[in-house]
Amino acid sequence: MTSPTQNDVSAVIFDWAGTLVDFGSLAPTQIFVDAFATFGITITLEQARGPMGLSKRDHIRELLGDPAIQAQWQATFGRASGPDDIDAIYERFMPMQIAKVAAYSAPIPGAVRTLAQLRAQGIRIGSCSGYPRRVLDELLPAAAAAGIAPDCVIAGDELPAGGRPGPYMALANVLALGAEDVRRCIKVDDTVPGIQEGRNAGMWCVGLTLSGNEVGCTQQELAALDPDELKARLDRATRRLADAGAHFVIESVADLPAVVDIVRARLAQGKQP
Q1: Residue 20: HSE in the Cβ half-sphere, 13 Å Cα cutoff
Q2: Catalytic annotation on 189?
């Protein structure tokens, strides 16, 4: 293993679903649909994907703020939703997510190889997630058995300052990994709040399209898509992640090593995020 120089990349901080594991980011989205259904509220996968990247309680709050979903709630319960309803949905969501998250722990193609390449270059591997710690505790052993085991994992509910789009989880990784300079760190994510998190932390940011929430398809669904529809989805995902502040947008984590080389070259030229 080599050691990074003073101007080299020192750490890469990854999201989980849609980035390292769970191609298409299906685990959280489907469970939101299922959890709302237990309250008699129908939401689509597209609606469920909207706030993806936030902590799960904040995600539920945002969903209830959607006018169409709020109208359903008021028609069903005869009143507007409130904080207690957010809590109730969250408590319904949590055991459902815990029960199923390990089934979505398969690494995204190329992820294991990418982590190995980064480690061989002396780059530290961090991670964070909108998943609460109780969910990550179920996901992490299954992911590790498949070859995905970052050096640091920060959950979306364990920092008093809060989660995305704030910089706190990314910065907690910096502290835990002993990374000397945020400008030598890279944040990799498939969601808008995750890219905003990295920018707010002062890092280089890489957005992922094909494997993640913005395209939102399994590999089987992608294979069946009309080429024009696939291009439209990729173009939309690229625009959204770039508009959120991504310095680079690629299809999946398999493409990351080439971006790390570019960042390394820019650092050597004295450039900053």
Answers
A1: 28
A2: no
